[in-house]
């Protein structure tokens, strides 16, 4: 096998590996953002559901002095 051809092949494999790693990092970042957004949406929906089921709780404070 020719040394130049081997060097070229190794360089191409390294470039492909770096590209695959970059794509994987982007996918992981997107998944992390989506997970955070989903968690926030669930928390907001939980608050709205609690208020719709018991709208009278937490709306008024009775204070006697």
From TrEMBL:
Protein species of origin: Gottschalkia purinilytica
Pfam families (UniProt xref): YjfB_motility (PF14070)
Protein name, per record: Motility protein
